[in-house]
Amino acid sequence: MHPVLESHEDNQEALKQRIDPKRVPRHIAVIMDGNGRWAERQGEHRVVGHANGVRSVREALVACREIGVGYLTLYAFSTENWNRPKPEVDALMDLLVKTVVGELEELNANGVRLNTIGDTAALPESCRTTLLDAIAATAKNDRITITLALSYSARWEMVGMARAIAREAKEGLLDPEAITEATVADRLSTAGMPDPELLIRTSGEHRISNFLLWQIAYAELWFTPVMWPDFRKEHLFQAVIDYQCRERRFGLISEQVTPG
Ligand code: IPE
Ligand code: IPE
Ligand code: MG
Protein backbone atom coordinates (compact mmCIF):
# COMPACT_ATOMS: atom_id res chain seq x y z
CA MET A 1 0.00 0.00 0.00
CA HIS A 2 1.06 3.59 -0.56
CA PRO A 3 2.88 4.75 2.64
CA VAL A 4 0.75 7.89 2.99
CA LEU A 5 -2.48 5.92 2.76
CA GLU A 6 -1.12 3.39 5.21
CA SER A 7 -0.30 6.01 7.84
CA HIS A 8 -3.71 7.62 7.34
CA GLU A 9 -5.42 4.30 8.03
CA ASP A 10 -3.11 3.57 10.97
CA ASN A 11 -4.10 6.89 12.45
CA GLN A 12 -7.77 6.10 11.99
CA GLU A 13 -7.31 2.71 13.65
CA ALA A 14 -5.29 4.21 16.51
CA LEU A 15 -8.05 6.72 17.21
CA LYS A 16 -10.68 3.99 17.11
CA GLN A 17 -8.71 1.95 19.66
CA ARG A 18 -8.86 4.88 22.09
CA ILE A 19 -12.67 4.76 22.19
CA ASP A 20 -14.21 3.03 25.22
CA PRO A 21 -16.81 0.71 23.67
CA LYS A 22 -18.89 0.83 26.85
CA ARG A 23 -19.41 4.60 26.70
CA VAL A 24 -20.16 5.19 23.04
CA PRO A 25 -23.02 7.68 22.49
CA ARG A 26 -26.23 5.99 21.44
CA HIS A 27 -27.14 8.92 19.26
CA ILE A 28 -24.91 11.40 17.41
CA ALA A 29 -26.37 14.41 15.61
CA VAL A 30 -24.42 16.35 12.99
CA ILE A 31 -24.87 19.81 11.49
CA MET A 32 -23.13 19.20 8.17
CA ASP A 33 -21.89 22.68 7.29
CA GLY A 34 -19.35 24.30 4.97
CA ASN A 35 -20.10 22.70 1.61
CA GLY A 36 -20.52 26.01 -0.19
CA ARG A 37 -17.37 27.62 1.21
CA TRP A 38 -15.35 24.46 0.52
CA ALA A 39 -16.34 24.66 -3.16
CA GLU A 40 -15.97 28.42 -3.52
CA ARG A 41 -12.44 28.29 -2.11
CA GLN A 42 -11.47 26.16 -5.08
CA GLY A 43 -13.29 28.36 -7.53
CA GLU A 44 -16.11 25.87 -7.94
CA HIS A 45 -19.86 26.33 -7.70
CA ARG A 46 -21.39 25.71 -4.27
CA VAL A 47 -23.20 22.67 -5.64
CA VAL A 48 -19.83 20.93 -6.13
CA GLY A 49 -19.41 21.17 -2.36
CA HIS A 50 -22.75 19.48 -1.75
CA ALA A 51 -21.84 16.66 -4.14
CA ASN A 52 -18.53 16.14 -2.33
CA GLY A 53 -20.35 16.05 0.99
CA VAL A 54 -21.91 12.71 0.08
CA ARG A 55 -18.63 10.90 0.74
CA SER A 56 -18.49 12.50 4.18
CA VAL A 57 -21.97 11.19 4.97
CA ARG A 58 -20.76 7.71 4.07
CA GLU A 59 -17.64 8.11 6.25
CA ALA A 60 -19.67 9.34 9.22
CA LEU A 61 -22.13 6.48 8.84
CA VAL A 62 -19.44 3.80 8.58
CA ALA A 63 -17.56 5.26 11.55
CA CYS A 64 -20.74 5.23 13.66
CA ARG A 65 -21.50 1.66 12.65
CA GLU A 66 -17.97 0.51 13.46
CA ILE A 67 -18.10 1.79 17.03
CA GLY A 68 -21.71 0.80 17.70
CA VAL A 69 -23.61 4.10 17.59
CA GLY A 70 -27.33 3.30 17.21
CA TYR A 71 -28.60 6.56 15.75
CA LEU A 72 -26.99 9.10 13.45
CA THR A 73 -29.07 12.19 12.66
CA LEU A 74 -27.88 14.52 9.94
CA TYR A 75 -29.08 18.06 9.33
CA ALA A 76 -29.30 18.00 5.54
CA PHE A 77 -31.73 20.82 4.70
CA SER A 78 -33.31 23.35 7.04
CA THR A 79 -36.64 25.14 6.77
CA GLU A 80 -34.62 28.31 6.21
CA ASN A 81 -32.59 26.71 3.40
CA TRP A 82 -35.69 26.97 1.16
CA ASN A 83 -34.82 30.66 0.85
CA ARG A 84 -31.54 29.96 -0.95
CA PRO A 85 -31.27 30.62 -4.70
CA LYS A 86 -33.56 28.22 -6.57
CA PRO A 87 -30.81 26.54 -8.64
CA GLU A 88 -29.02 25.53 -5.43
CA VAL A 89 -32.22 24.22 -3.84
CA ASP A 90 -33.05 22.26 -7.01
CA ALA A 91 -29.53 20.82 -7.16
CA LEU A 92 -29.77 19.73 -3.52
CA MET A 93 -33.10 17.97 -4.10
CA ASP A 94 -31.67 16.28 -7.17
CA LEU A 95 -28.60 15.17 -5.23
CA LEU A 96 -30.79 13.82 -2.46
CA VAL A 97 -32.74 11.60 -4.84
CA LYS A 98 -29.62 10.35 -6.63
CA THR A 99 -27.80 9.64 -3.38
CA VAL A 100 -30.67 7.75 -1.78
CA VAL A 101 -31.17 5.64 -4.91
CA GLY A 102 -27.42 5.06 -5.31
CA GLU A 103 -26.83 4.07 -1.69
CA LEU A 104 -29.87 1.89 -1.10
CA GLU A 105 -28.12 -1.42 -1.73
CA GLU A 106 -25.23 -0.46 0.53
CA LEU A 107 -27.64 0.61 3.29
CA ASN A 108 -29.40 -2.74 3.17
CA ALA A 109 -26.14 -4.69 3.05
CA ASN A 110 -25.03 -2.99 6.25
CA GLY A 111 -28.20 -3.10 8.31
CA VAL A 112 -28.88 0.64 8.02
CA ARG A 113 -32.43 1.86 8.51
CA LEU A 114 -33.29 5.15 6.80
CA ASN A 115 -35.56 7.65 8.47
CA THR A 116 -36.43 11.32 7.97
CA ILE A 117 -37.60 14.14 10.19
CA GLY A 118 -38.98 17.44 8.95
CA ASP A 119 -41.70 18.75 6.72
CA THR A 120 -41.18 16.18 3.98
CA ALA A 121 -44.56 17.14 2.49
CA ALA A 122 -42.79 20.31 1.30
CA LEU A 123 -40.26 18.31 -0.76
CA PRO A 124 -40.75 17.81 -4.50
CA GLU A 125 -42.89 14.75 -5.28
CA SER A 126 -40.00 12.73 -6.75
CA CYS A 127 -37.97 13.26 -3.56
CA ARG A 128 -40.85 12.26 -1.37
CA THR A 129 -41.53 9.04 -3.25
CA THR A 130 -37.85 8.09 -3.40
CA LEU A 131 -37.51 8.66 0.31
CA LEU A 132 -40.69 6.78 1.19
CA ASP A 133 -39.60 3.82 -0.95
CA ALA A 134 -36.14 3.77 0.64
CA ILE A 135 -37.60 4.08 4.15
CA ALA A 136 -39.89 1.12 3.45
CA ALA A 137 -37.06 -0.90 1.86
CA THR A 138 -34.78 -0.44 4.90
CA ALA A 139 -37.47 -0.62 7.61
CA LYS A 140 -36.39 -4.03 8.91
CA ASN A 141 -32.70 -3.11 9.31
CA ASP A 142 -31.70 -2.73 12.93
CA ARG A 143 -27.98 -2.09 13.20
CA ILE A 144 -28.10 1.70 12.93
CA THR A 145 -30.75 4.28 12.08
CA ILE A 146 -29.70 7.19 9.90
CA THR A 147 -32.14 10.06 10.10
CA LEU A 148 -32.03 12.84 7.53
CA ALA A 149 -33.43 16.14 8.76
CA LEU A 150 -35.05 17.55 5.62
CA SER A 151 -37.04 20.75 5.51
CA TYR A 152 -36.53 20.56 9.25
CA SER A 153 -36.30 23.18 11.92
CA ALA A 154 -36.75 22.80 15.65
CA ARG A 155 -39.23 25.66 15.86
CA TRP A 156 -41.33 24.15 13.07
CA GLU A 157 -41.27 20.88 15.02
CA MET A 158 -42.28 22.59 18.26
CA VAL A 159 -45.19 24.38 16.62
CA GLY A 160 -46.40 20.99 15.37
CA MET A 161 -46.05 19.54 18.86
CA ALA A 162 -47.99 22.45 20.40
CA ARG A 163 -50.76 22.02 17.84
CA ALA A 164 -50.97 18.28 18.50
CA ILE A 165 -51.21 18.78 22.26
CA ALA A 166 -53.79 21.57 21.92
CA ARG A 167 -55.88 19.44 19.58
CA GLU A 168 -55.85 16.49 21.97
CA ALA A 169 -56.72 18.72 24.91
CA LYS A 170 -59.59 20.32 22.99
CA GLU A 171 -60.95 16.92 22.10
CA GLY A 172 -60.79 15.92 25.75
CA LEU A 173 -58.14 13.25 25.14
CA LEU A 174 -55.47 15.00 27.19
CA ASP A 175 -55.69 16.73 30.58
CA PRO A 176 -53.45 19.85 30.45
CA GLU A 177 -52.37 19.19 34.04
CA ALA A 178 -51.16 15.74 33.03
CA ILE A 179 -48.73 17.06 30.41
CA THR A 180 -45.16 15.96 31.17
CA GLU A 181 -41.81 16.14 29.39
CA ALA A 182 -42.67 12.75 27.89
CA THR A 183 -45.93 14.16 26.46
CA VAL A 184 -43.86 16.76 24.62
CA ALA A 185 -41.09 14.38 23.51
CA ASP A 186 -43.66 11.92 22.15
CA ARG A 187 -45.09 14.61 19.87
CA LEU A 188 -41.79 15.67 18.34
CA SER A 189 -40.60 14.11 15.10
CA THR A 190 -37.88 12.26 17.04
CA ALA A 191 -40.44 10.38 19.17
CA GLY A 192 -39.06 6.99 20.14
CA MET A 193 -35.43 7.98 19.59
CA PRO A 194 -32.99 8.61 22.44
CA ASP A 195 -31.77 12.22 22.73
CA PRO A 196 -28.39 12.84 21.07
CA GLU A 197 -25.57 12.76 23.62
CA LEU A 198 -23.19 14.35 21.13
CA LEU A 199 -23.75 17.11 18.57
CA ILE A 200 -21.10 17.81 15.96
CA ARG A 201 -20.96 20.93 13.80
CA THR A 202 -18.39 21.39 11.05
CA SER A 203 -17.13 24.53 9.27
CA GLY A 204 -16.12 26.54 12.33
CA GLU A 205 -19.55 28.03 13.01
CA HIS A 206 -20.56 27.93 16.66
CA ARG A 207 -24.33 27.91 16.48
CA ILE A 208 -27.27 25.52 16.44
CA SER A 209 -29.21 27.00 13.48
CA ASN A 210 -32.62 25.76 14.63
CA PHE A 211 -31.62 22.08 15.00
CA LEU A 212 -33.13 19.71 17.62
CA LEU A 213 -33.53 22.43 20.28
CA TRP A 214 -35.49 20.25 22.71
CA GLN A 215 -33.44 17.10 22.18
CA ILE A 216 -29.97 18.62 22.72
CA ALA A 217 -30.79 20.01 26.17
CA TYR A 218 -27.88 18.04 27.66
CA ALA A 219 -25.90 17.08 24.55
CA GLU A 220 -22.15 17.62 24.48
CA LEU A 221 -21.25 20.00 21.65
CA TRP A 222 -18.22 19.43 19.43
CA PHE A 223 -17.18 22.01 16.89
CA THR A 224 -14.52 21.64 14.22
CA PRO A 225 -13.20 24.05 11.59
CA VAL A 226 -13.17 21.16 9.09
CA MET A 227 -15.55 21.80 6.18
CA TRP A 228 -18.12 19.04 5.70
CA PRO A 229 -16.68 17.72 2.38
CA ASP A 230 -13.37 17.12 4.23
CA PHE A 231 -15.01 15.28 7.14
CA ARG A 232 -13.65 11.73 7.53
CA LYS A 233 -14.00 8.81 9.94
CA GLU A 234 -11.13 10.08 12.07
CA HIS A 235 -13.00 13.32 12.77
CA LEU A 236 -15.95 11.37 14.11
CA PHE A 237 -13.64 9.23 16.23
CA GLN A 238 -11.96 12.41 17.56
CA ALA A 239 -15.35 13.83 18.52
CA VAL A 240 -16.26 10.63 20.40
CA ILE A 241 -12.91 10.55 22.21
CA ASP A 242 -13.41 14.16 23.27
CA TYR A 243 -16.97 13.33 24.38
CA GLN A 244 -15.68 10.46 26.51
CA CYS A 245 -13.21 12.78 28.26
CA ARG A 246 -15.97 15.09 29.48
CA GLU A 247 -17.83 14.86 32.76
CA ARG A 248 -21.57 15.00 32.12
CA ARG A 249 -22.99 16.37 35.34
CA PHE A 250 -26.66 16.99 34.45
CA GLY A 251 -26.84 19.71 37.11
CA LEU A 252 -25.21 17.65 39.86
CA ILE A 253 -21.77 18.21 41.38
CA SER A 254 -18.73 16.24 40.37
CA GLU A 255 -18.68 13.99 43.49
CA GLN A 256 -22.25 12.88 42.81
CA VAL A 257 -21.44 11.86 39.27
CA THR A 258 -18.24 9.98 40.06
CA PRO A 259 -18.42 8.96 43.73
CA GLY A 260 -15.17 8.13 45.51
C1 IPE B 1 -24.23 22.80 4.43
O1 IPE B 1 -23.32 23.55 3.70
C2 IPE B 1 -25.27 22.13 3.57
C3 IPE B 1 -26.59 22.79 3.60
C4 IPE B 1 -26.96 23.75 4.41
C5 IPE B 1 -27.58 22.31 2.66
P1 IPE B 1 -23.64 25.04 3.25
O2 IPE B 1 -24.33 24.99 1.94
O3 IPE B 1 -24.35 25.77 4.33
O4 IPE B 1 -22.18 25.64 3.05
P2 IPE B 1 -21.64 27.02 3.59
O5 IPE B 1 -21.94 27.06 5.06
O6 IPE B 1 -22.37 28.09 2.85
O7 IPE B 1 -20.19 26.99 3.32
C1 IPE C 1 -27.52 24.62 8.90
O1 IPE C 1 -26.57 25.18 8.06
C2 IPE C 1 -28.44 23.74 8.13
C3 IPE C 1 -27.82 22.54 7.57
C4 IPE C 1 -26.62 22.11 7.83
C5 IPE C 1 -28.66 21.78 6.70
P1 IPE C 1 -26.77 26.64 7.45
O2 IPE C 1 -25.56 26.92 6.63
O3 IPE C 1 -28.07 26.75 6.79
O4 IPE C 1 -26.79 27.52 8.79
P2 IPE C 1 -26.45 29.06 9.01
O5 IPE C 1 -27.22 29.83 8.01
O6 IPE C 1 -24.99 29.22 8.81
O7 IPE C 1 -26.85 29.33 10.43
MG1 MG D 1 -23.74 26.83 5.94
Question: Would you spell out the secondary-structure blueprint of this structure?
Answer:
Layout: H1 3-17, E1 27-31, H2 35-41, H3 46-67, E2 71-78, H4 86-109, E3 112-117, H5 125-137, E4 144-152, H6 154-170, H7 181-185, E5 198-201, E6 220-223, H8 233-244, H9 254-257
Parallel strand pairs: 1-2, 1-5, 2-4, 3-4, 5-6
Helix pairs in contact: 1-8, 2-3, 3-4, 3-8, 4-5
Question: In words, what does this structure look like?
Answer:
The protein is built from 9 helices and 6 strands. With 260 residues, the protein is an alpha/beta fold. It has a domain at 25-153 and 195-208: Undecaprenyl pyrophosphate synthetase (3-Layer(aba) Sandwich). Strand 3, helix 5 (125-137) and strand 4 form a beta-alpha-beta unit. The protein is globular. One 3-methylbut-3-enyl trihydrogen diphosphate binds at residues 31-33, 75-78, 81, 205, 207, 209.
